[in-house]
Design brief:
With 224 residues, the protein is mostly helical. The protein has 2 domains: 4-74, Orthogonal Bundle (Arc Repressor Mutant, subunit A), CATH 1.10.10.10; 79-222, Four Helix Bundle (Hemerythrin (Met), subunit A) (Up-down Bundle). The chain is 72% helix and 4% strand. The protein contains 10 helices and 3 strands; from the N terminus they run H-E-H-H-E-E-H-H-H-H-H-H-H. Helix 4 (79-101) runs antiparallel to helix 9 (195-216). The protein is elongated.
């Protein structure tokens, strides 16, 4: 069995991995930026081995990449990477949202309404990172009601990378309110339980800024 020190070390590395993940999401750490173990160890006042363990956790989630003899870097996304993530989102979320329709009741709609209300507040405060976090919360909540455990597992495995690139779509919206309004439309469509309309609204929401990001991004800027 592992001793207490080993457990504490793992717990600390997990906490540091979580903080680094948030730094990547809010763009305090940029895509492609090198993460120097000694610098991060000094920053968090921990051993390099703890930082190394934290970076391994992030590598498993696809947020960092270790390059032989060059070090560890925040992952970058090529156009192909982004297109694959978007295609997977559309495929899974469309099916999951439709499956969830038969299970959504007033309590679920109330919860989603509260998320959208929070988005309105953050839109007024012009807080993009908070809006993106609430976007993930909205989508994950519906997907987790589809009652397909394998679909949910695959979807959840993509969320870390999805949130990472969401942090770069803000410049493709005219304002914060436009992003919030998309979720108002999505919620209203869910409440109508119209599968055809839902597919259209959901796909438009996922594709709008995401595809603009793909077109606008130069291939060489996103390669690992």
């Amino acid at each position: 069995m592992e001793d207490d020190r080993s457990i504490m070390k793992k717990s600390l590395s997990t906490l540091i991995a979580e903080r680094l993940k948030e730094n990547i999401w809010d763009r305090k750490l940029q895509l492609g930026e090198r993460l120097v173990e000694s610098e991060q160890a000094e920053r968090f006042d921990v051993s390099r081995s703890t930082i190394r363990e934290a970076l391994k956790l992030l590598e498993h989630k696809g947020l960092v990449v270790n390059k032989a003899r060059r070090g560890t870097y925040v992952s970058q996304f090529s156009r192909e990477d982004l297109q694959e993530i978007i295609d997977l989102r559309i495929l899974i979320e469309t099916k999951a949202f439709i499956n969830a329709l038969t299970h959504l009741d007033e309590s679920h709609f109330q919860h989603l309404s509260e998320i959208v209300a929070a988005m309105k507040e953050k839109a007024e405060e012009k807080e993009w990172n908070a809006l993106f976090d609430l976007d993930m919360k909205f989508h994950s909540y519906v997907v987790n009601l589809c009652r397909n455990s394998r679909m949910i597992k695959i979807y959840n495995s993509t969320q870390t990378q999805t949130r990472a690139y969401l942090g770069y779509i803000d410049k493709y919206y005219s304002n914060h309110h436009a992003f919030y309004k998309e979720h108002v439309d999505l919620l209203e469509t869910l409440m109508q339980k119209d599968t055809v309309a839902l597919q259209t609204v959901l796909r438009r929401h996922i594709e709008y800024a995401d595809n603009t990001l793909i077109i606008a991004t130069k291939e060489e800027d996103l390669k690992e």
